[in-house]
Amino acid sequence: MKKNSTIIILIILLNQIINTIECNSTELNRFIEEASNYLSSVDLSDYPLSAVENVKDALTYAIRISQKEYCDETEIDKAKSNFNTAYVNMENNKGNIFILPKIDNIYDSNRGFYHPGGLYTQKDFDRVKKQLKEKMKKSL
Known about the structure:
This protein has 140 residues and is mainly alpha-helical. It has a single domain, classed as Substrate Binding Domain Of Dnak, Chain:A, Domain 2, CATH 1.20.1270. It has helices spanning 2-19, 26-41, 49-66, 73-92, 122-133, and strands spanning 21-22, 70-71. Strands 1-2 form a two-stranded antiparallel ribbon.
């Protein structure tokens, strides 16, 4: 039984190695160019800001993938799919403009968020532990 599980693990690792090859981003770069041309050719004021920002975020993600030295087809497909989903959403919301009063420092929760990494301090962890211990509803 142990021999079979070892073989399965080796097959999984081999597949990961095969699927993580030098990034062939030629097709993705062509897609990025078409997407960039599209964005520069439309009047973005016809679309909700959050929809436009989602498309821009998807394009930024595709550019990040295209700049990687190693990637797999799954990443490239995900980048294109993310953009296509955002594009369809933007087109479906053409003309749905909402006029909001000017608000400084507003965060659009529809845009997604790329966490910059480990920015937590021990003080932050201690504060959260205390809140959890005190069963503060907003922390649970």
